[in-house]
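Deviations from the work plan: none for this task. Representative record:
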Amino acid sequence: MKNSIGSSVSLTLFGESHGAMLGAVLDGLAPGIPVETDYIAHQLELRRPAGRISTARREADAFQIVSGAFEGKTTGTPLCILIPNADTRSRDYAATRALARPGHADYTAWLKYHGYEDYRGGGHFSGRVTAALVAAGAVCLTALRRRGILIGSHIARCGGVADREFEDGAGDIAALNEKAFAVLDEAAGERMRTVIAQAAAEGDSVGGVLETLVLGLPAGVGEPWFDTLEGLLAHALFSIPAVKGVEFGDGFGLSALRGSQANDAFALDPEGRIFTKTNRNGGVNGGISNGSPLRIRCAVKPTPSIYKPQETVDFLRGQEAVLQLRGRHDPAIVHRARVVADSVCALVLCDALALRYGTDWLGGEGT
Amino acid sequence: MKNSIGSSVSLTLFGESHGAMLGAVLDGLAPGIPVETDYIAHQLELRRPAGRISTARREADAFQIVSGAFEGKTTGTPLCILIPNADTRSRDYAATRALARPGHADYTAWLKYHGYEDYRGGGHFSGRVTAALVAAGAVCLTALRRRGILIGSHIARCGGVADREFEDGAGDIAALNEKAFAVLDEAAGERMRTVIAQAAAEGDSVGGVLETLVLGLPAGVGEPWFDTLEGLLAHALFSIPAVKGVEFGDGFGLSALRGSQANDAFALDPEGRIFTKTNRNGGVNGGISNGSPLRIRCAVKPTPSIYKPQETVDFLRGQEAVLQLRGRHDPAIVHRARVVADSVCALVLCDALALRYGTDWLGGEGT
Amino acid sequence: MKNSIGSSVSLTLFGESHGAMLGAVLDGLAPGIPVETDYIAHQLELRRPAGRISTARREADAFQIVSGAFEGKTTGTPLCILIPNADTRSRDYAATRALARPGHADYTAWLKYHGYEDYRGGGHFSGRVTAALVAAGAVCLTALRRRGILIGSHIARCGGVADREFEDGAGDIAALNEKAFAVLDEAAGERMRTVIAQAAAEGDSVGGVLETLVLGLPAGVGEPWFDTLEGLLAHALFSIPAVKGVEFGDGFGLSALRGSQANDAFALDPEGRIFTKTNRNGGVNGGISNGSPLRIRCAVKPTPSIYKPQETVDFLRGQEAVLQLRGRHDPAIVHRARVVADSVCALVLCDALALRYGTDWLGGEGT
Amino acid sequence: MKNSIGSSVSLTLFGESHGAMLGAVLDGLAPGIPVETDYIAHQLELRRPAGRISTARREADAFQIVSGAFEGKTTGTPLCILIPNADTRSRDYAATRALARPGHADYTAWLKYHGYEDYRGGGHFSGRVTAALVAAGAVCLTALRRRGILIGSHIARCGGVADREFEDGAGDIAALNEKAFAVLDEAAGERMRTVIAQAAAEGDSVGGVLETLVLGLPAGVGEPWFDTLEGLLAHALFSIPAVKGVEFGDGFGLSALRGSQANDAFALDPEGRIFTKTNRNGGVNGGISNGSPLRIRCAVKPTPSIYKPQETVDFLRGQEAVLQLRGRHDPAIVHRARVVADSVCALVLCDALALRYGTDWLGGEGT
């Protein structure tokens, strides 16, 4: 299956930027998990554009759960969430249809779908599809939280500015999940927003690095070949538009160390439980969780939609052209993508946990 | 499925470091592809330890193809390659069984398999299992080469030394595929080997970065969600032991650029064909190949098996301990892992191409 | 994945009998296939209850395609079809919630979902979910028809009455696809309807046997182990509510023959093409299509919802009870299930063909 | 994946009738399950030809477990079983390579694999491949037995003779699993063997019906769409060579009943547990196990390899021909196929149970 991921718990996404609706089908999740509509709305709100550093497109992101929930809880059957597209201005896109936006999927979509693709606003490739992913991910995040598994992401770097590192895992996660612009150090966040606004003023865009922390994941989850925990997470994370790199623990930084520096020594805590004194491997050894927090970083490239004139090709007419974008575009998406990263991680972990402990493990106690 | 990957073309790995045999079942590959035993042996030779910078363990890596090949060609039915384990010294490992090697899977394997795992020499987690992967990957590499798709990797960085970048794609790939230590700049390679030997002398190890180039891949391969080309490749690449990060194009480097720098402008070549003037996105837009070369980088951590004393825990006795490794270990594996990276990429691309163009596309013309 | 089927072309179903909507996501289908809304409506009409031999529940089966179609053709991205539930009378079901209807899924659903299931009207187990399957199947049937592959089913047996056998494949299929009660021999059909009406008058129900014919399927499709064409079709066909047996060719009848009777002799037609003189194996040898028509039969048990009093158990109170069903129920569903059988076969064959010949094979020529 | 089945517990088969080896990779099975080599040998013995009613080909069926077992128990990593081919007479087949045996896969294999297939002795399509399936299935059967789940099959019908029905489930299963010719009524068995021998004397062959009983399966296993327990089992059972029909409970017989006859009434046993007073639905309602025994029947067609002259085509020369088979062939395989049916059911149920209850449920208690 293609636009789906997961084996025991799975997600299927559908919808185009300017179609009638977006949606997600979340299947295999245990019965009895509260479907917290306020929380779903909260997560969608975190994904929505906001203020001077985001696109002017506004969507209420009203969502409707049309199946798989009954009396406020998951039923265990496929849960479908629909999100209507309200504020679409398709006329913005028709004229420039064949002017391939550099860094975008216009050209590859045309190659793959032979011109039958819905090209308006990026169609099925639009970041807007992540709204459905976030709504479904919210249910997964609820399921994990009830089992003591917490997930949160911050903007570790953006426009040359670095946030501080995670210090107080659970506290940091709680704080981040309330912030529209997820940084641990507000001063760093202010500097990031300034850089973004400056790029926007120049008709340009910036990228960044997201770092996700997962607390409370049981040890022993993942497979040696090929369904390593890293492989499963990376597979899904690369679907987030603009993600071009994924690393675990110190990731690329590890490649510059010596083994004596990179290895995480094991030790016993006062209760006799095994832990690692450092966590350079990001909570995974041999593809399997070791009980330490997962640390995951995603490289988010600068938004490809910029207002500066760009060289390109009109692929229908077969001639070179200059692209001058109009419409509504984000000068950065790293701050909006972080809730997508949380959602993707939650989905993948629900699947891995359901495979490991059975389909009921994440669910309710029975009515 | 767990120790398998791929949907139309798939690979299943089995075997333990000190068991009777390792092996791979390669299924779904088209009929009529030459099974070049010399080339398989060549690829296995590239993976084998060599000289002062590798483990003293020596394996002839004799392999036997027991199914799926007939009269020198693939039949289209599952191809099974067996590699016997000859030079095993299990007594090296029994004593230290419960002393979890930091950075290794000993502890997570024990958590997952409850003590039933074959712990000798890393068991199923051993890098030795990649011999079977390389043998199967060689058949995939042959299949791709016949279609004009070339794959090669070099050690882009190791121990603080950088190799030169790819300049002449096909020529560079041809040269690399003959080298035991795959660098484009021999002087850089000599410095890398010096750093590795120095670390070895200190009982330590080093990591590095592998860069893989793929030429000739048709445009239009991959899916928007979730089977992006990046996601599919990363899923498999994270199975290579010690890989902790994967990036495409400029990857994490892109996250520090502006959109005007990161976007690859489209242009027309003299024959009117569309190409990108730069390739910072590594040949993939929106999860789909755009016709430019794929550029993939993997972060390889330093070998966790080092001779320096390390703090750890005996997980059976529940007490802290100092681990003093003996046995035969690599001070670096980045130079051995590169042929594994080639093999993994070949496997994933065969699968994606078979899905796109059908099961016969990679095969022969019929007898 | 659970409520999904297919690997290259796949279908995911969602929805409950008395929820807001039912739906299907059809993914992986080639771009450029006409989305014939009239034909979809026609197929839904064939599935709908009609006259004295069907439930009194009436649904307009208005459907909405919210993604994956653009300018009247498939885009190649996931196509989602929604069907709202309009005429629901939930109060019919609440009182008898824990009175397990014999032959139904009430009790097993409760065991599996621990009471969180939406029990109204059979919930996700309701035959009503097949409306979404039929709508998606109509798109698959269109795709196949454009490639010369025709599918049609008739009620081979019902209530002790046998229809005549297929004689003129394409003509018979064309005739059947216009009939609300699909029989080749109208006199036999009239006798069947009489038997059904008689059972209905007694508060009882009848079953039957569906026979599906597939013309024009290319030879060479299917796999030896385990994705045989028979296995793939049967896997999906057993999802049709009430199907309890599936056979190919002469099926169970073959088991009573001698080899010399059961084997289909090969011969050459005047143009020198190979064909089989008989088709007792139903078009499949060794799991792979041989170019002869596929012949598939499904055993459909009598509708379990009957008005006669039945012994059962109240599984919440843990006491025996007598069940006296009210509400609206079909005295037979074999005539409504046949279009579901066509749809399921079309879906499975689209998947098998896309795997064999690539994702574009079923699609358009490009815009 | 193609020559594989299963999602949490999976099996991959490889090998050709006249290649070096056959084998199976069983992945995902829990660690700590005893690997009973005597029992595996016993099961292989049940599959082997015996006496006047079987092929003269004799194979010792020596098997070797080369991975996934350690100190007599499963490790949880892929378990590979190899079975060498010893007694092959390839010269028997070369001359008749292009003379398509009616009822066999020679012609479809040639269409699918374009002449690259290993055609000797049926190649990968040979019933001999089931030896590997039986060996792997034996490990699954052991795993289930430790959890109180028992599986056994008998020849319900063969050559016009019917065996008696199951009466004492566990006792009948125990008796059957010791018999080379699995009937409950020895007098019926003797008559069956007479019919088989008579057909053999005429150069012909006979088919039959296998009935499998599964006791002790927990209720609540299976999915509504599409991974019904019936669908999962049928998918795999159709891989058994010569199986052309699969039914559950009364199967096709149900289609001739009224609902009041076909429904299984629920009742309470003296301990207050729910059971069904009859079991016409074969232990499955709505695709999910209901706690009653599973009853599965497979139609096995007569062996297509017969000595009587047959009309066929030489597909390389494109001319009609008369086929006069030589070599060693079974006049019936239904008695050999029954242990394959047990193995297939065991595999599918291990997978379904691991999905439902987690990967450790079938395993050991830890070392």
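Chain D touches chain C through 106 residues (CB under 8 Å).
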